Amino acid sequence: MSATFVGVLQAAGAFLGGLLVRLGVVLLVVLAFLVPVALVLGAVRLWRGLAPAARGLRRAGHVLYRPGVRYAAGHTWIEREPGRVKVGIDGVVQEILPWALSVELPRPGQRLFEGEVAATISCGHEEARIAAPVAGRVVAVNAEVERDPSLVKEDGYGRGWLFAMEPLDTRWSTLPAGDVARDWMRQESERLDDFLESRLGFAGMAARAGPAPPLLSPGAWRELTRSFLHA
């Protein structure tokens, strides 16, 4: 009887040992899969954090800010070039846009008044109208964003610029820049947060994980774009 009991214990021990070995092998396989995935995800997050800095961009609240340019109330940026100014959308508009499916630009030679709709970015069922930051004549447009509209959101401060103007006067040079512009952008980022939270509640707070505008009703989208884009 004693020998039988010992045999049972030995068999049970062998079974448990084999089970532990199998579990160890499974664990090693899982770790071998998860560790590279974790490293890749970590690298992606690191790149997302470093990529804007590599392009000379900074953070102002939740949005990207580019030093060295001026900012208009309708959330466009203006960069001085010889004989003209280049215009694009700032980090607030880039944050508002869920995506960009097409971009309608003004015609070269077209004269624009300050605040007039100069460009339209289609997001599918909704669109964002971009106001001219100053009065003047359009002298160039960025055909690259017509071919690849995603550039206005992915690289709105660089390759995603919209058009260039010959300004009517020099009032554009009085628009905010530097620390003043960055503080304003930070305030606008907070205002955008407040808007989304008030319209979407918890969904608005979670919007930082992805684009929130698709969750807005058509009326709320129009209110959002009127409030921030001024067009």
TrEMBL record:
Superkingdom classification of source: Bacteria
Transmembrane segments: 23-47
CDD domains: GCS_H
BP GO annotations: glycine decarboxylation via glycine cleavage system; protein lipoylation
Pfam families the record matches: GCV_H (PF01597)
Gene Ontology CC, one term: glycine cleavage complex
SUPFAM superfamilies: Single hybrid motif (SSF51230)
Keywords, sorted A to Z: Lipoyl, Membrane, Transmembrane, Transmembrane helix
Xref: InterPro entries: GCV_H, GCV_H/Fam206, Single_hybrid_motif
Keyword Acetylation: no
Alphabetical list of PANTHER family matching this protein: GLYCINE CLEAVAGE SYSTEM H PROTEIN, GLYCINE CLEAVAGE SYSTEM H PROTEIN-RELATED
The protein's name: Glycine cleavage H-protein
